[in-house]
Amino acid sequence: QKEVEQDPGPLSVPEGAIVSLNCTYSNSAFQYFMWYRQYSRKGPELLMYTYSSGNKEDGRFTAQVDKSSKYISLFIRDSQPSDSATYLCAMSAVTGNQFYFGTGTSLTVIP
Amino acid sequence: NAGVTQTPKFQVLKTGQSMTLQCAQDMNHEYMSWYRQDPGMGLRLIHYSVGAGITDQGEVPNGYNVSRSTTEDFPLRLLSAAPSQTSVYFCASSYHRGPYEQYFGPGTRLTVT
Hints:
With about 110 residues, chain A is mostly beta strands. Helices cover about 0% and strands about 60% of the residues of chain A. Chain A is built from no helices and eleven strands. The mean pLDDT of chain A is about 90. In chain B, the strands form two sheets. In chain B, strands 2, 4, 5, 6, 9, 10 and 11 form a seven-stranded mixed beta sheet that branches. In chain B, strands 1-3-8-7 form a four-stranded antiparallel beta sheet, with no helix packed on it. In chain B, β9 and β10 form a beta hairpin.
């Protein structure tokens, strides 16, 4: 079983829609949760970073962590064509020196 | 700051050849790492370093060597290239003494024929 599972999509939505991206994980020791955005043929760029449970909001982006369900989400409000990219979740234990990545979800926002 | 830089951007090798992928960061980050990204497999950790002189293996270290003689540089060496090493390689760094909030370089696309 993979440490982190992420639906690869692809996901296609109209401009202005609310997008929900999700990951599940198996290791209950994971405490750090991150979301990266990766444009085609570019390196991943850090989008959101949360520790333990709860929500974190940054502009149009909201990250949620539900540790009881081992489930994390990224919501994008008022989605824009510039949001079209692959979104990767990643997570780690507090004492870990390794981050485990999901395989990424491909998102296209149609104008 | 240039951030994390990687060279070369593209490389084609023949089976059995060796080469070094370069990675440098100018942010005085302690933690540096190398990942490979393959379709359907996501990003997989090859090696990482928590500071100069300290390296350790990640999930897929076979066929690769690293060293960390300075804080800034973290080269990845392919000892004897194999077609299975065809991939996109990313270097990343973090100011934490761990992989949190990593910043990635632009990647090196490697093809082994």
